[in-house]
Design a protein that fits this description.
By secondary structure, this protein is mostly helical. About 35% of the residues lie in helices and about 5% in strands.
Length: about 120
């Protein structure tokens, strides 16, 4: 998301990384894809920017659970109310932890998180 934000806003998307062996996105390709998004898709993209706080000068990717290989994003078929709470409980029972409130698809492996982390964060 950080790189896409930087490309969309004509900022250098290859600076600030400390990730070893990282292959950056192609700016022309990203701009072409963004140009062809519907208004609803662009609104969703903006929401993702806001959710992931990507506007800063340093990308979060190198320090994320994902880049460490301990997290995945899973979007269940139904993501609201009690159905989502049941989904989070089932994931927790299988050693997956949903501990970032507001980031519904984010699940990390419990064994790599600090003890006492709330794995049912809303």
């Amino acid at each position: 998301m950080w790189e896409i934000y930087r490309i969309e806003n004509d900022l250098d998307n290859a600076i600030g990384y400390g990730c070893e062996g990282y292959q950056h996105l192609n700016s022309a390709t990203v701009k072409n894809v963004i140009a062809n998004l519907t208004a609803a898709q662009k609104a969703t993209l903006q929401q993702e920017y806001n959710t992931h706080n990507v506007t800063g000068p340093t990308p979060p990717a190198c320090a994320s659970d994902h880049s460490q290989g301990i997290a995945i994003d899973i979007t269940p078929p139904a993501t609201s109310g009690s159905t989502y709470q049941k989904w989070m409980q089932m994931a927790s029972d299988k050693s997956l932890c949903h501990y970032i409130a507001g980031d519904q698809p984010h699940f990390a492996l419990k064994q790599y998180l600090a003890s006492g982390v709330n794995c049912l964060a809303p």
